[in-house]
Design brief:
The protein has a single domain, classed as ABC transporter involved in vitamin B12 uptake, BtuC. The protein is an all-alpha fold and about 325 residues long. About 80% of the residues lie in helices and about 0% in strands.
Length: about 325
């Protein structure tokens, strides 16, 4: 147990190092003294302090927020569905939130506050749509849960396609969402983070409170029920927390995918099956991954800045293929499925 908690300490230190590099690296390099000064002794006459506090720090906070919620959400979804490909991006949650935000803005001219509510409603609608399609496709006769993932892919493509159709229908308003819809961690969305951060905080706190029953449920629903766990209630509460957290992240900067798919596979072999440990470990590593992805997006093709969502999609697509090969195409897995 001590070794697993040491993993949390190491993950936290790595996160701090990633945060420093994110704040210090850019078109101009800023030293540690200036970074610390901007955070703790802000000088309004120091231009570097402005860069750190009003440009790089909001980006970093958004990256941390998205990484925490998407990674912890992916961990919970993979545990509940017992499917290694489950995540907010593969089960229609991100796509549903994206569609509702774009459609709400185009059809009803929703402001930022209302767009947050639309994202939460869309996240719920996206997941329920995925689940309904999977049930119709015969989820109960699919022990490996492939129908659920295929349904999520279908729903996601449909919803993102409809969102893009809205964007194409109005060239004048397209610029407001063209970057956002691809997952754009940007300091201009700091106002959205300020409005919606409490939703993600409550969602993550709820998952931490459910850590023990979620751990028992990994042993099997019958064993969990015999230990006093209300399996249906815990499952619904955990999924609701994941949908709210992921929906709020999408409301801020658009759908940043695959961090929820990749990070749990890195954390689980190191932190074990206890959600009390691997939930915070996933959150820390997810935040680190998003910080590093944002750094790559800013620096890889400088002075041009890519959208962080594109970097995550490129890396996540490779990992997605490897996971499919390991869990669905491997002969050994097929024999035991």
């Amino acid at each position: 147990m001590r070794g697993r908690f040491s993993i949390l300490a190491v993950a936290f230190l790595v996160l701090l190092a990633s945060l420093y590099f994110n704040l210090s690296t850019g078109a101009t390099s800023i030293g540690p003294a200036e970074v610390a000064g901007a955070l703790f002794r802000f000088d309004p006459e120091n231009y570097d302090h402005y860069i750190v506090l009003y440009q790089r720090l909001p980006r970093a906070l958004i990256a941390i927020y998205v990484g925490v919620l998407m990674a912890s959400g992916g961990l919970v979804l993979q545990g509940l569905t017992r499917n290694p490909l489950a995540s907010p991006s593969t089960l229609g949650i991100n796509a549903g939130a994206t569609l509702f935000v774009v459609a709400g803005a185009y059809l009803f001219n929703l402001g930022i506050e209302a767009q947050g509510g639309a994202a939460l409603a869309g996240a719920v609608f996206g997941f329920l749509s995925c689940f309904v399609v999977a049930r119709l496709a015969g989820l109960s006769r699919d022990p490996r849960g492939l129908a659920l993932i295929l349904s999520g892919a279908l729903i996601s493509m449909l919803f993102i396609g409809i969102a893009n159709a809205f964007l194409l229908s109005d060239p004048a308003g397209r610029t407001d969402f063209l970057g956002w819809v691809t997952g754009n961690i940007n300091h201009v969305y700091a106002a959205r983070l300020y409005r919606f951060w409490w939703i993600g905080a409550l969602a993550f706190a709820g998952l931490l409170l459910l850590a023990r029953p979620l751990t028992l449920m990994t042993l099997g629903h019958e064993k969990a029920a015999s230990a006093g766990v209300n399996v249906v209630r815990v499952s619904r509460l955990a999924i609701a927390a994941v949908m709210l957290g992921a929906g709020s992240a999408v409301a801020i900067c658009g759908p940043v995918g695959f961090v929820g798919l990749v990070v749990p596979h890195i954390v689980r072999p190191l932190a074990g099956a206890r959600f009390g440990v691997n939930l915070p470990a996933s959150a820390l590593l997810g935040a680190t991954v998003c910080l590093l992805a944002d750094l790559v997006a800013r620096q890889a093709f400088a002075p041009f800045i890519l959208h962080t969502g594109l970097i995550m999609d490129l890396a996540g697509g490779v990992v997605f293929a490897l996971i499919v090969k390991r869990y669905y195409l491997s002969p050994a897995v097929g024999r035991h499925a």
